[in-house]
Amino acid sequence: MSRTSIFSPLQHRPYRMLFYGQLFSDLGTWLDLLALSVLVAYTWGKGAVELALLTIVIGLPWVVVGPFASVWVDRLPRKGMMIACDLLRMLVVLGFVVAPNLYVLLPLVFLKEALSALFDPARQGAIRTLVPEAVLLQASSLSQLSLNVTKVAAPVLGGVIIAVSSPSLVFLLEAALFLFSIYFISRLPKMKVETYVEEGMADESKFWQQFKQGLRYIGQNRILATAIVLMAVRFFLIFLYDGLLVLWGKDIGMGEEYFGIFLGAVGLGTVIGTVVVGQWSFWSAKPIQMMSITASISGLGVILLSFGSFGWVPPNVILWTTLFFLVGAIGAGSSVPYGYVLQKETPSGIIGRVTGTANAIQNLSMFLAPAIGAMIAEWWGTGGVFLIAGTGTVFISLVAMLVVPKTGGAAKGKEHTASS
User: Fold this and answer.
1) Which end of the chain has fewer CB atoms at under 10 Å, N or C?
2) pTM for the complete prediction?
3) Distance between CA atoms of 110 and 113, rounded to whole angstroms?
C-alpha cells in the first residue's frame, strides 16, 4: 500500500497550476451541456431531430478532428496550445449568447468541441512532462477526479442557473471559467517540445507519417492497446443502456422523481471510487487486471439492474440507490488505471497522438451505442439491453485479463528535445 496521498502531486507547483487550469477548463466544458439543450428545445421550440443534431455535433469533433489535430499537439508548445484553446473557447461560448438560430449555434458548438479535443491531448502531454515519475499515478488520478467531479457538478450547476435565470448566464459564466483556466495555465513553466522517433527509423516529420506513427505505437504496445480497446468497449456497453434509465425506472415501478437520485448516486460513487483507487497504488504493476476485475464486478451490477426490469427484484429505492452508487464507485476502478496506463506507457513526444486516437475510438463507440440500444429495447425490452450490456462487460473484461502480457509494451523509440 502506497503512503503517497492522491493529493501529493499538488505539492509540486507546476502540476498544481496545471490541475487548477484543468479544473476550470473541465467545468467550462461540461457547464453548458444542459443549457444548450434548453436553448434549442425551450427557447427556440425545436424538437427531437434538432436535439439529436446537437448531440451529434457535440461528439463528432472528437472522432473526425481530434486524431488528426493531435499531431500538432505533439509538434507545438503545449502551454501555448492550451492557452489558445481556452481563449478561443471563451470567444466561442460568448458567441452562444448572441447566436440567433440553430444554424449559427451548431457550427459554434462544433468548433468548441474541436478545441476541447485539442486541449485534452495537450493536457495529457503536460502531465507527462511536468510530473515526477514517483507521483505520476496520483497525478493521473487527480486529473481523472477533476473530470469525474465536473461531469457531475457542472451540469447540475448549469441547471440551477437556468432555473433562476437563463442559458445566456450559463454561457457567460462558462466564458469566465475558461478565463480562469488561462490564468493558471499561463503560470506554467516553459515545457520542452519532445519529438518521438521510432527505433530503427529516420526522423519522420511529415504530417501523415507522424499521424501513422501514433497508430503504430498503439498497435505495438499490447498493454496500451488493451486498455484503449477495453475502455472503448466499456463505453459502448454503458451507452447501450445509458439513455434508457428512465424506461428502466418505469419498468421497476418508480416515478421520475427517483431518476435524479439514481444519477446522483452514480456520480457520487464515481467520485469516491476515484479518490479511493487513486489513493493506493497496489494495482499499479497490473493495471489491466485492475481494470478487468472492477469492470467485471460493475458488469454484474448492471445484470442485477436487468433483473429489476424483468420484475425479479422488488422496487426498493434504498436497494437500487445503493447499487447505482456501487456501480459508479467500482467503475472508477477502470477509469483511473486507464488514465495511468495512458501516461505510463506513452512517451511525452507521442502522447498527444495516442490520446487523440484513444478519444476518437471511445467517442465513436459512444456514437453508435444509443441507436443499437434502442433497437435491442424494441426487440427484447429494456431489461434485455441491461442484461446484454452487463454480460458483455463481464465477458470482455475476462478476455482482457487473458490477452494482456505480464510485462510492459513492445513499442520502442527515443525522444529528441527542443526548446519551446
Assistant:
1) N
2) 0.87
3) 5
